[in-house]
Design a protein that fits this description.
Layout: H1 3-43, E1 46-49, E2 77-78, E3 83-86, E4 89-91, E5 93-98, E6 113-123, E7 126-131, E8 140-143, E9 152-154, E10 159-164, E11 168-174, E12 177-188, E13 201-204, E14 207-215, E15 221-224, E16 228-237, E17 240-246, E18 249-251, E19 267-270, E20 273-278, E21 281-283, E22 290-293, E23 296-301, E24 304-307, E25 315-318, E26 321-326, E27 329-333, E28 337-340, E29 346-360, E30 364-368, E31 379-393, E32 399-403, E33 408-419, E34 436-440, E35 454-465, E36 473-476, E37 484-494, E38 497-499, E39 507-509, E40 514-519
Parallel strand pairs: 6-12, 13-15, 14-16, 15-17, 16-18, 16-19, 17-20, 18-21, 19-22, 20-23, 21-24, 22-25, 23-26, 24-27, 25-28, 26-29, 27-29, 28-30, 29-31, 30-32, 31-33, 32-34, 33-35, 34-36, 35-37, 36-39, 37-40
Antiparallel strand pairs: 1-6, 2-5, 3-4, 3-7, 5-6, 7-10, 8-11, 9-10, 11-12, 37-38
Length: 520
């Protein structure tokens, strides 16, 4: 080799090393910027974590089996197969019951599955890391989809990571399956916590509590603190100015399924005025969950419900007026949001900014009972459902008015409804596989009056189905006198298709019993 060639080679090597050093330096600086940016996001953030009761049992493989409540322990437990960290800190994860059965079970003992849940308070940003050691991660979805969260997935280490900046409920679905989806209740920082020394406050601190029934009187506040699990029910009758609030859990797993005999309703308010229910979590009731009857002037704000057992309706308002239901999460094994007449007339009820997961029955329902008390001149009027996200609907209609008595149902609005996954018609829901169902019906199960009523002035607008099935819809009155009239459907989009006529939307419309039905 010549002398000149010997000197060229080291120069080339030197250049290569310099270029490599520059690249490494740029990568280091870039990573440093990322770390710094991440640190800046969290710099002004606040986080409040709540340790769960140490008395809760660790869930075993046997506890996770899908079977009836007669065959395994359905108690609330500590989750052992899903780890959640928030801003690097361990977050306590509970294991509660859910129900993937898509048909009614006459024994009142359908097979129950389990799913993890966790909760915390934050302000600013929260970096959430979910570790599922025993699960293969093919895909991960973070709902609500409107946040546009794309998680970072580490398949080798079975880890999912993402950042949130808005308090809300976030559901992590693995591999496009509802099985063991993780529900994260990310709350705003709690303020104005009542004093345990206040004589008008029933204060329940952290820990596990067996309390058969808490009966609230005029002016009382029940506060269930974060980290508390209360096995029992909360009732109030003929009272004014009662409040239930806190970050804790009301759990009904120690009650047997009601089987049409004894319903232990976790939140029950009859003949009350000025009700305020906020933020509490309700799990595994033995029947329906949150009921107000013949009550007025109520606010239900930010409560979270997971109801897996028969007749597990979420929020049911019966013969109520002037109610605002908002910022809630409802996963139910029966109708999720319901308005009925059991006695007096219902009016001025708003459901707003709510997430729904309906495992069985309807998502947003008026009826069937519209005059169960057989009162003269019955009516249900001025009811609205707005800004509703239906994460999943597996069974019966998403939007429904079922008038099975003689009431006039009028001035009803369904606006800004997003259905992320429409699987309507699954199981025995194939008998009513409708996306939208407005129907005046004779029902042997639910009718109390011989005569039928009417449905008038219904607006359905800005409804979007993102994925799943393209289900039909139905508008059908009872006869020529008991009709459905003045229905406007605007801006309906199903699976990316803008629906501008009834045929394209697969609508079944009975021309003999309907008038002035339009779509645009």
């Amino acid at each position: 080799m010549s002398e000149s060639k010997k000197t060229v080679i080291p120069e080339i090597v030197l250049i290569i090393l310099l270029v490599a050093a520059i690249i490494v330096s740029l990568i280091y600086v870039k990573n440093k910027k990322v770390v710094a940016a991440s640190a800046n996001i969290l710099a002004d953030s606040k986080l409040v974590l709540y340790e769960g009761p140490k008395s809760l049992k660790d869930a075993t493989e046997e506890d996770l089996k899908s079977t009836s409540e007669n065959q395994r322990d359905i108690s609330l437990m500590r989750c052992t197969d899903t780890i959640v960290k928030v801003n690097g800190h361990d977050c306590f994860v509970y294991d509660t019951n859910v129900n993937h059965t898509r048909q009614w079970v006459n024994t009142y003992a359908p097979p129950l599955s389990r799913t993890p849940i966790t909760y915390f308070d934050f302000e600013g940003a929260a970096v959430i890391e979910v570790i599922v050691p025993g699960r293969q991660l093919d895909s991960v979805k973070i709902s609500p989809l409107n946040y546009g969260i794309t998680p970072e997935i580490d398949k080798e280490n079975h880890t999912v990571k993402f950042t949130i900046t808005e308090p809300d409920t976030y559901t992590v679905t693995f591999n496009d399956s509802p099985e063991r989806a993780l529900h994260i209740f990310a709350n705003p920082i709690e303020t104005d916590v009542p004093s345990p020394d206040d004589e008008n406050v029933v204060y329940i601190g952290p820990g596990e509590w067996n309390i058969e029934a808490i009966m609230l009187e005029d002016g009382q506040t029940l506060y269930i603190s974060g980290g508390a699990v209360v096995h029992g029910i909360v009732n109030s009758n003929f009272t004014k100015n009662v409040t239930v609030r806190g970050r804790g859990i009301i759990d009904g797993s120690h009650y047997k399924s009601w089987q049409g005999k004894m319903a232990y309703i976790p939140l029950k308010f009859d003949n009350c005025e000025n009700i305020n229910i906020r933020d509490v979590i309700v799990l595994n009731p033995n029947a329906w969950v949150c009921q107000a009857f013949n009550s007025k002037n109520g606010i239900i704000d930010g409560i979270k419900i997971i109801s897996p057992r028969p007749n597990g309706d979420g929020i049911t308002l019966q013969s109520c007026e002037n109610f605002e239901v908002k910022n809630c999460f409802v996963r139910s094994w029966d109708d999720s949001l319901v308005v009925k007449n059991y006695d007096k007339n219902s009016k001025n009820i708003t459901f707003k900014n709510i997430q729904i997961w309906t495992d069985l029955a309807q998502s947003m329902e008026i009826g069937y009972e519209t005059n169960k008390g057989k009162k003269p001149d019955p009516s249900i009027t001025n009811i609205s459902f707005e800004d509703i996200t239906v994460l999943n609907n597996f069974h019966k209609p998403v939007i429904s008015i079922h008038n099975a008595d003689d009431a006039l149902v009028s001035d009803v609005t369904f606006r800004n409804i997003v259905v992320e996954n429409a699987q309507i018609g699954s199981g025995d829901g194939e008998e009513m596989p409708y996306l939208i169902d407005l129907w005046i019906t004779q029902s042997g199960n639910w009718s109390s009056t011989r005569d039928r009523g009417q449905i008038r002035n219904v607006t359905i607008e800005n409804v979007q189905v993102l994925s799943g099935k393209f289900n039909p819809s139905r508008i059908k009155g009872f006869d020529a006198e008991h009709t459905i009239e003045d229905v406007v459907i605007r801006n309906l989009e199903i699976l990316g298709e803008k629906i501008t006529d009834f045929e394209a939307g697969k609508f079944e419309i009975d021309e003999q019993t309907t008038k002035n039905i339009s779509i645009e």
